[in-house]
Every structure is written in C-alpha cells, then in structure tokens.
Amino acid sequence: MNRKRLTGPLKGLHLAEDIVLMLLLGGLVALASAQILMRNLLDAGMPWADPLLRLLVLWLALAGALAATRENKHIRIDLLSRFLPEWLKSWTERFTSAFTALVCALLAWYGGRLVWFEYQDGTIIAPGVPAWIAELIIPLGFGLMALRFALRTLLPREEHIRPNVSREAAKNAK
Fold it and tell me: What are phi and psi of 71, to 5 degrees?
C-alpha cells in the first residue's frame, strides 16, 4: 500500500471529522443557550429543541469517540502492558485492537439493524425528520471505529501510536 497516496484522502477525512465535530459542538451550545435564555427570560421555549439536543449529544458523543480513536486517545485499561516486555506489548496491542474492532463491528451491525427497523416502522422524531436518519451515526460511527481498530491490528505499532508523526520521528521519540 502506497502511504503517500492515502495521506491526502486521510487528511481530508480527518478535516471533515473535525469540522463536523466543531459544528455539532457549536450547534449544541448555541441551541442549549438559546433554550435556557428563552425559558428564563421569556417563559417560553422551542418544543423541538429538547429532542434535537438529545440527538446532538448522541452525534457529538460518537463523533468525539471517532476522533479519539483516530488520535489513539480513547479510554483503555493498560495495566498489563506496563509489566510486559516490549516484544509482547505489540502482540497484546494487536489482540486488543482486533477484539475492539470486533466489538465495534457488532455495534455497527446492530446499530444498522436498529436504523433499518426504524426505517421500516416509519418512526418520526420531529415533524419531517424520520428517526432512522437521526440514528445513522450509530452504524457509521461504530463502523469507522471498527475499521480504524482493524487497521491497527495490521499496521506496525509506530504508525498507529502517533498517526500525525512519521515513522522515523516515532522511532526517534522512543
């Protein structure tokens, strides 16, 4: 695989993820602030804002998890790796990544089934907004995380520990 050919599309994907994350967070803060101000100052509110805020939290959580996975800053328990020799750490990290990819793939699969059932049922969460569209982030987010963890099982350790640093710089940092 030619790594230079992938750099451009990956940078574009990462930029798109960051923009979506910023828009979601900005929209969440703006909408929640407007709702609070309207309730406290005008004794009124937007009835559609609360369900939308819940959806924004879902989207923000999964987009944030995706960004954390990209930067390898996700939550993990690595007590065992502190005591393992260096040659065994690589194998345990690969095994853990493979297991995590499997779990994320299962969540994506069942999230996709949820979306399909919502589509078939025609559930509406707001006027003109079908539930299945709002829930698409579940299979998409977990599917992308599964892909990232699967790639971590295949790539050399240096390439997935610090994705924004070249292999040579990662080796020199050790």
Answer: -90, 0
Q: What is the DSSP string of 137-150?
A: HHHHHHHHHHHHHH
Break the chain into its structural domains and give their ranges: 3-173
User: pLDDT by residue (tens digit) across 12-60?
Assistant: 888 888 899 999 999 999 999 999 999 988 888 888 888 889 889 999 9
In terms of C-beta density within 10 A (0-12 exposed, 13-18 middle, 19 or more buried), how is residue 107 classed?
middle
- Identify the DSSP state of 119: H
How far is 162 from 150, CA to CA, in rounded Å?
A: 16
Round to whole Å and give the CA distance between 79 and 125: 43
Q: pLDDT (tens digit, 9 = 90+) per residue, 138-158?
A: 999 999 999 999 988 887 655
